[in-house]
Write a structure and sequence with these properties.
mainly alpha; single chain; 0% strand; 8 helices; elongated; 68% helix; 142 residues; Cytochrome Bc1 Complex, Chain D, domain 2; binds heme C; 2 domains
């Protein structure tokens, strides 16, 4: 008598848990689908937000988001750049920079200063604010 009583509950409880697992798995799939959908929507949103800065690294984006001071840029230019480009940016070892903002866009100007890709012009590492100031100065060279 004892053993049948003991043996009967386990199968029924196993059936119960099997019955419980099925709906849970169904909810899980629904949740996964919802999460994948949300992630896809987030990606689209992120792409739209980042799109204006496509092709820019974080440094360039940060620099372009700042308002530069042409006055401070001029000071930085005299200290770092005038030796090659001339005190009035009229050109010396490096080219005349008047009208340079018409030849190069803002990203190209930043890259010119930080990349060091055109020796003998060295690679500079100005803080984003200092770079924004230099840009403001270069943009004012008409
Ligand atoms: C050691 C000399 C040297 C120094 C210092 C120097 N440059 Fe230059 N720069 C050059 C030379 C040479 C070129 C031309 C590179 C080339 O295109 O081959 C140039 C090119 C440029 C250009 C592109 C000009 C154009 O017509 O496309 C910009 C902008 C510029 N420099 C800005 C700066 C700024 C801003 C600084 C200071 C932070 C600076 N340079 C410091 C030598 C120098």
């Amino acid at each position: 008598m004892i053993s049948p009583v003991r043996s009967s509950p386990p199968p029924s409880s196993a059936a119960d848990s099997a019955a419980q697992i099925a709906p849970r798995a169904g909810i899980g799939r629904g949740l996964v689908t919802a999460l994948v959908g949300a992630a896809a929507a987030a990606c689209v949103l992120l792409a739209l937000l980042v799109l204006p800065g496509v092709g820019s690294d974080p440094y360039t984006r940060q620099t372009l988001a700042l308002k530069g001071s042409a006055e401070h840029g001029a000071l930085l230019f005299r200290l770092n750049c005038a030796g090659c480009h001339g005190i009035a940016a009229q050109g010396l070892v490096g080219p005349n920079l008047h009208g340079v903002a018409e030849r190069k866009n803002q990203r190209q100007l930043i890259s010119q200063v930080v990349s060091g890709r055109t020796p003998p012009m060295p690679s500079f590492q100005p803080e984003p604010q200092a770079m924004a100031d230099l840009l403001a100065y270069l943009n004012g060279l008409v």
